[in-house]
Amino acid sequence: MRVVSLTIALLCGAGLYGQEYRGSIQGRVSDPSGAAVPAAAVAVKNLETGVLVDATTNDEGNFQVPFLLPGNYSVAVTRAGFKKAERSDVRVNTNSRVELAFALEIGAASETVTVDTRAPLLETTESDLGVVMNNNVVSNVAVSIYRNAINFARLAPGVSGAPAGTYTSDNQTQISISGGGATQGNNEIILDGVPDTVPLSSGSVVMVPSVDSIEEVKVNTTMFDASYGHSNGGAINIVTRGGTNQPHGDIYLFKRWAALNANSWANNRLGLPAPPLDYHQYGYFLSGPVYIPHVYNGRNRTFFSTSLEKDADVRDLFEQARVPTDLERRGDFSQTRNRTGGTLTIYNPFSTQVVGGKATRQAFAGNLIPANLISPTGAAVLAAFPMPNIAGPAQVGAFNWSDDKTYTVGQQQESFRIDHNASGRQRLFGRFSRLTRNQAPEVLIPGVQQYNGSGANIDHYQQWRNAFTFDDTFTFSPTLVGSFRYGFARRFNYETWGGVGMDPAQFKTPDVIVSNQPQKGIPEFNIGEAVPSLGSRQNRLANDLHSLFTTFTKIAGNHNLKFGSDYRLIRYNSANQGTSASGSFTFSPTFTQGDPFTASSANTTGTALASVLLGTPSSGSFGYTSPLSLQSHYIAGFVQDSWKISRTLVLNIGLRYELETPYTERYNRVAYGFDPGAALPVQGTGLNLRGGVLFPAMGGHPRREGNLDTNNFGPRFGFAWQPLRKTVIRGGYGLFFSSILGNTGSLGNLGVFDAVTPYLGTADSGATPFTTIANPFPSGLRGPLGSSAGLMAQVGDSLTYINQNRVAPYNQQWQVSLQRELPGNLVLEAAYVGMLSLKQLETYNLNDLPDVYLSQGTAQNTAVTNPFLGAFPATSALGQAATVSQKQLWLQFPQFTSVNMNGANTGTTTYHALQAKVEKRLSHGLTVLGTYSFSKLIHNNMTSLVNERHYRSIASLDQPNLFRLAFTYQLPGHFARHGAGRLLEGVAGGWAVTGFLSMESGLPLSISQSNGRPIVIADPRIDGPVNQHLGDVKNAAGVVLNPYFNTAAFQALPSQFAVSAQVPYISQLRAPGQTSLNASAFKNFRIVERLKAELRLEAINASNHPYFNAPGTNMSSTATFGVISGASNSRAMQAGLKLVF
Question: Would you indicate the residue range of the signal peptide (predicted)?
Answer without folding.
Answer: none
